[in-house]
Amino acid sequence: MLPVQLFYFIVVQQANASVATILQFIGPFFVIGYLTVTQ
């Protein structure tokens, strides 16, 4: 959980909170896609 929060704060510093929130919500889809490709 700590890397997710760290990534969120880094994105907020670089962009803004709305972009960070969108990336946080679509993160699980990247995990599902990765698992689909590798399995």
TrEMBL record:
Record field: transmembrane: 6-37
Record bears the keyword Transmembrane: yes
Lineage: superkingdom: Bacteria
UniProt keywords, alphabetically: Membrane, Transmembrane, Transmembrane helix
Protein name: EamA domain-containing protein
Organism taxonomic ancestry: Bacteria, Bacillati, Bacillota, Bacilli, Lactobacillales
